[in-house]
Amino acid sequence: MEFWLIAVLLTFAATLAVLLPLTRRRAATAADGQYDLEVYRDQMREVEADAARGLIDPQSAEQARAEIARRMLKAEQEAGQGSSAPRSVQRARWLVLSAVLSVPLISWGLYALTGSPDMPAQPLAGRMASNPADGSVSELIARAEAHLAQNPDDGRGWDVLAPVYLRLGRADDAVNAYRNAVRLQGESAERAFGLGEALATAAGGTITGDAQAMFERAAALDPGDVRPRFMIARGLMQEGKNEEAADMLQAFLDKAPADAPWRDQLGAAIAEIRNAAPASGPGQGDVEAAAKMAAEDRNEMINSMVAGLDERLKQNPDDLEGWKRLVRSYLVLGRRDDALAALKRGSDALAGEKRNDLMAFAKELGLELTETKP
Amino acid sequence: MTAEIGQFALVLALALSLVQSVLPVAGARRRDPRMMAVAVPTAFAVFALIALSFAMLVHAYVVSDFSVLNVVENSHSQKPLLYKITGVWGNHEGSMLLWVLILAFFGALVAFFGNNLPPALKANVLGVHGWIGTAFLLFIVATSNPFARVAPAPLEGQDLNPILQDIGLAIHPPLLYLGYVGFSVCFSFAVAALIEGRIDAAWARWVRPWTLTAWMFLTGGIAMGSYWAYYELGWGGWWFWDPVENASFMPWLAGTALLHSALVMEKRSALKIWTVLLALLTFSLSLLGTFLVRSGVLTSVHTFATDPGRGLFILAILTLFIGGSLTLFAFRAQSLSSGGLFQPISREGALVFNNLFLTTATATVLVGTLYPLLLEALTGDKISVGAPFFNMTFGPLMIPLLAAVPFGPLLAWKRGDLLGVGQRLLTAFALALLVTGFILYKTSAREVLAAFGIGLAVWVMAGSLTDLALKAGIGKVSAATAFARFVGLPRSVFGTALAHFGLGITLLGIVSVTTFGTEQVVAMKPGETLPVAGYRLRYDGLTPAIGPNYTEQQGRFALLDNAARQVDTIVSARRFYPARRMPTTEAGIVTHGVNQFYISLGDDLAAGGIVVRVWWKPLVTLIWLGALAMMAGGCISLLDRRLRIGAPARAKGPRSGPAEASA
């Protein structure tokens, strides 16, 4: 509203600048020659002054006077001839009218094409002062950045910002933020792991030497944390050391508490690594993704891994360990019916000792194939 | 909302410029005083609107309004306030807005000071000025809108090119544009005269203050740009014959010629057609400079954005104005009354000599600048016409011109006495010879060219002082009378002498630094020393530092005299601007008198230590001090009381006309 008011006022003023001189009555002005005469009179004074000061000799002064006088004569003639009265009293009314109208028409027309009157200005100070709860993530980040630019030694700030950067894929910023956090807040398993992840992401997903060192540091700082192990294993797999990776994870699994929620997943992953040729299996990308994912996302990845296992067992049914893993995986995922179906398929596919083994395994987990009992 | 007001004011200025282009010119044809009178208030209103628009853009930069695309692309919230403001014209859109702002400013000045102009001439001048304004406003609105908005607004800008984050950006472009655009007034006067088909000595008098103003600012703009490039780019050079530099140098050369030929026209009513042509050419060269810089034909720091659409638009403007004005000239030139004849040995003869050499020099620079571009366009071959070409062609042209400078002001109008003038310049000549001999003796005659160059500089300087002394009558009359006469001299005499003296100063600096300057590229480890120009330079190592929007590594150097006392500390730095991920170097410069030590840091060495470039630049600041003296000369001439000519008394009736409209 305020804008339109100003626009109208500006247009009014601009139109007035054209309109006023056109409507005002004017007396006849001096002829053009008169203006020339003023200049020549001035030149004449100049020559007199120079002559008086002795800057030019009398002969030159005389010549100059004569020359200027000739010019004055000519200008006086012109002034006499040229009438300054309007040549045509009948003014080009259409020209004047269209000129006056063109000011509002052209300006508003062009503004309609180029302007965005509905967009409010967004000065940064105003945006920073608004309620943080209303802000978007990027706005909150900008706030935090502004704060940290002023207080670069606020370790907590860096601590908060670092994982946010990482999640947004701003890996370089994340590396910088984690380093600052470590510098100011001291080392912790969380920071070491985050820095490792940031370094790996910055390197396009490759576990670099630096990243691997950070994961190892994180593992040392928190021996019970499974995530750094995953990443270390991934680093090893990158070098083709699948066996070593599986052994390392197995050793970790053996020492892990029995009620750890990730036991089964880890077991599945170890099996995957062992089964896979160095090039396939849960690839580096998959593990990297699993380590970074939120719980639901991770479940989804596990699901797809389980589906893969299911598919393989269809092709190659004579695999006791495979069936065990499949049944247990379905149970872990809460898909009891699928687990039962898998058990059924396993018991059909296997025979003798292996079939009994599978049944005993299922019974331990609380599953029984009642209908298949002879 | 502020950005939208800016946008609206801009399109309103365009609409009003269109009226300013049409009505006054039509009025002048019809001798309709009312239509002619529209020129003055519209010129003021256009200036006010563009100023408002510009202020809105500055405001958007200052408050970091990232809903404006131009601010996002060229600013950063952490940038110091000064660079937020200068960043307004550190980019294509903003600099074009500054261009039209200054154009409209000159239009308003003509309207304000134009009471002594015949109404028809004034209406035509402002009308032609309106054409230029309309063309460039249309260019901005159509292809380079500085007020384009973005939604959603980003939270941080991309920052200004770090090389441009310097005080130089606050001074160089505005000064340069004041010069470039100032010549638009001369252009408008010339086209107006051609339209009217009437031109005389009075015309030259009316144009003179505008030529002087534009020339003064252009001199300052070029000098400032040169000094900025010198300390910012870290190459130790002060002039590179870079096409962009040439683009500003050509209008300067042509403008200098115009300044001198207009004198002949004013005093002798001669050289009229030539002067009008020069006025057209000078602004045409300014436009050509704008085209070269803005179209992206040249790629350098000055080309903020390369966009073929913009280039074509500017090329169209260029063709329209240069082609149009020259065509008009071709049709009208014969009908202009030609001036009287004159003797070759006279003041006017000397000024023709000056024009001959200046325009030839302009042509030389033009060829050197455009030839590689044309060749590349036609054959695809990339060649570089560098300093050797210009030194071989431009240099020799300047020698006779400079040698003739002291003669000009001493020769009388109409018929000069070369021998007499020569006698009066004997002292200056003897002094120049003495200095030349001294330099030859000191350098064991190894630097013959330098000795003569310095001799020439002394000759120019002593010559301009001789002019003042002779005009004051020193030696002929008593000291008291001489002093009284000296004080009473017209200011334009002082202006001429000072500008010519400045020319000599600049020449002295150029010759000295080219011949006696030294350059050393060495690897230094902390604690090591290097002998430079009688001092020893000790490297003290790198220390990190943090600026407002950059981090830097400062290389610290101590300058020790013969007794190993520290006389100065020099800090040269390598900066890194994280927003643009761009490194820059900051040269370390200390000034001793008019000489400078100049240090630039290179790369780190694997073996430890760092590559350091060290220059010793004797008398280097004289190059720019000379330009300042030239500017001061122009300024003093401009203040000459005699340039103020009254308007004729009105024929009759109530006081009206331009004076009232401008109130």
UniProtKB/TrEMBL annotation, chain A:
One of its GO terms (cellular component) is cell envelope. It is found in: Cell envelope. GO terms for biological process: cytochrome complex assembly. Pfam families: TPR_CcmH_CycH. Residues 146-261 form the Cytochrome c-type biogenesis protein H TPR domain. TPR repeats lie at residues 155-188. Keywords: Cytochrome c-type biogenesis, Membrane, Repeat, TPR repeat, Transmembrane, Transmembrane helix. The chain crosses the membrane at residues 94-113. InterPro entries: C-type_cytochrome_biogenesis (IPR051263), Cyt_c_biogenesis_CcmI (IPR017560), TPR-like_helical_dom_sf (IPR011990), TPR_CcmH_CycH (IPR056413), TPR_rpt (IPR019734). This is Cytochrome C. It comes from Paramesorhizobium deserti.
From TrEMBL, chain B:
The keyword Repeat does not apply. It is found in: Cell inner membrane. One of its GO terms (biological process) is cytochrome complex assembly. Keywords: Cell inner membrane, Cell membrane, Cytochrome c-type biogenesis, Membrane, Transmembrane, Transmembrane helix. It comes from Paramesorhizobium deserti. This is Cytochrome C biogenesis protein CcmF. The lineage of its organism: Bacteria, Pseudomonadati, Pseudomonadota, Alphaproteobacteria, Hyphomicrobiales. Belongs to the CcmF/CycK/Ccl1/NrfE/CcsA family. Residues 89-295 form the Cytochrome c assembly protein domain. Required for the biogenesis of c-type cytochromes. Possible subunit of a heme lyase.
